[in-house]
């Protein structure tokens, strides 16, 4: 491995440490921990993930989702978001994903500035 590649990887590690120290990441980890330790909220999320997987598999098999399928999904999503722990976890996850998308965008911006 050449030195330039090693330097890039070292900067990635340092970036990861900086990200882990942000309030956005800390809130994400706290919400994740709280969700995992709340049996009711965790079950709601697991049920939603199972239903989403079933819908995905139906779509991949070429089966169109029925109105009942779509309504069941909406209802379960609403039930999930009405749970305060699931809601907090969802918000923290969304905020963290936005941070990561912004970081990725800035990396692309740096690459594109060299490509010009």
Automatic annotation (TrEMBL):
Superkingdom: Bacteria
Matches recorded under InterPro entries: Com_YlbF, YheA/YmcA-like_dom_sf
SUPFAM superfamilies, per the entry: YheA/YmcA-like
Protein name per Swiss-Prot or TrEMBL: YlbF family regulator
Native organism: Desulfosporosinus acidiphilus (strain DSM 22704 / JCM 16185 / SJ4)
Taxonomic lineage: Bacteria, Bacillati, Bacillota, Clostridia, Eubacteriales
């Amino acid at each position: 491995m050449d030195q330039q590649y090693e330097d890039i990887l070292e900067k990635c590690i340092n970036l990861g440490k900086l990200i882990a120290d942000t309030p956005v990441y800390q809130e994400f980890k706290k919400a994740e921990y709280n969700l995992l330790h709340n049996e009711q909220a965790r079950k709601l999320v697991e049920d939603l993930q199972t239903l989403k997987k079933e819908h995905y598999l139906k779509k991949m098999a070429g089966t169109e989702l029925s109105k009942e399928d779509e309504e069941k999904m909406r209802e379960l999503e609403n039930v999930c978001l009405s749970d305060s722990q699931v809601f907090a976890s969802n918000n923290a996850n969304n905020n963290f994903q936005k941070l990561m998308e912004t970081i990725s965008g800035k990396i692309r911006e740096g690459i594109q500035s060299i490509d010009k």
